[in-house]
Amino acid sequence: MPDRSPAYAAALAASLHWDSARDEPYLQPPSFPDLRLVPYRPGIAGDLVTLFNHPPVGERLFVLPYPMSSAFAEQMLSDTLAKQAPILATLRARRAERTLRDSGEGQDEKVQVHAPVWPFKALWSEAEGRVVGDVFLWPNAEPLQVAGCEGVTGSGGAGRPGEEGEAGEGSEATNDETTDQHPQWTVGYVLEPALYGRGVMSEVLGCVLEGWVRPEMGVRVAASIAVDNAASAAVAVRNGFVYSREEGTEWPKEKGGGVRYHGLYTWPS
Predict the structure, then answer these.
(1) CA 15, CA 34: separation in Å to the nearest integer?
(2) Is residue 122 assigned to a domain?
(3) Where is the composition biased (Gly residues) (predicted)?
(4) What confidence tens digit (pLDDT) does each residue in 19-46 have?
């Protein structure tokens, strides 16, 4: 049974921390002190190749190549670092302003983020010093910019999230138009197979939603999960996602081809 206690909910909501040594934010899963969700860092391309080339991971990805080459991983890392840079600069400015204010040297106002930005990406093992998972969060109105996949947009369930190796490292999961003032983003996630079955991704997703998306972004979130991936569906539902409908997607020939069916889920924020 998932922990639904007020104390656990509070821990998820308070999962945002700051690493003073690296001068970067991170999300800390409360039950897994060795793991943290961090921005992409230089030098992790080899970790990405290893992660995305696990068969349970790579074979389920819609857009990213399988197997993934080192050259592709290096370019994807470079592109992501460039996209992260202004977001991290804003967060550092906010932290500096708060530090000045708390010391009595700054004005009594903080640098606000409270905007739809996503500064995290890699699930990092502190003990092993490497990437063991990846979280994808992308606005549905914006095309995906990934090396070799520029301009890809959703066409009926292209993003594929899930704990057991299924992921949203493609375009958006759905073309549904937002019906209120909250824009919709798509979430996807992959995890090293050695960590399956421990509740890791359930808690990481909880940190993403409650520690960052709800307080900072104010957006709705969608997920598209293969109908044969009960574990991934459980991760989503456990975190408040609601099933919407099922749809099929023509799968790339190099990954088996055919039509694969996915359930669409939404998190209302």
Answers:
(1) 14
(2) yes
(3) 151-160
(4) 999 999 999 999 999 999 999 999 999 9
The span from the CA of 69 to the CA of 53, in Å, is: 9
Task: For residue 12, give the CATH number of its domain.
Answer: 3.40.630.30
- Measured CA to CA, the distance from residue 172 to residue 187 in angstroms comes to 8
DSSP reduced 3-state for 37: strand
Tokens of 147: 């090396």
Question: Are 31 and 205 in contact, with CB atoms under 8 Å apart?
Answer: no
Does any domain span residue 1? no
Spell out where the chain has E strands: 16-19, 24-27, 35-38, 122-125, 130-139, 184-191, 220-226, 242-250, 259-267
**132: closest CA among 215, 229, 38?**
38
**Residue type, position 87, single letter:** I
Number of domains in the chain: 1
How far CA 102 is from CA of 95, 108, 230, in Å, comes to: 10, 9, 47
Of 47-61, 117-131, 173-187, the range with the lowest mean pLDDT is: 173-187
Q: What is the pTM of this model?
A: 0.83
Asked whether residue 229 is assigned to any structural domain, the reply reads yes
Q: Which residue reads 């957006």 in tokens? A: 219
What is the structure's pLDDT at 141?
62
Distance separating alpha carbons of residues 198 and 179, to the nearest angstrom: 36
Exposed, middle or buried by CB within 10 Å (0-12, 13-18, 19+), for 31? middle
In a domain, 90, yes or no: yes
Q: Give the mean model confidence (pLDDT) for residues 222-237.
A: 91
Rounded Cα distance, 163 and 143, in Å? 24
| 224, 263 contact by CB (below 8 A) | yes
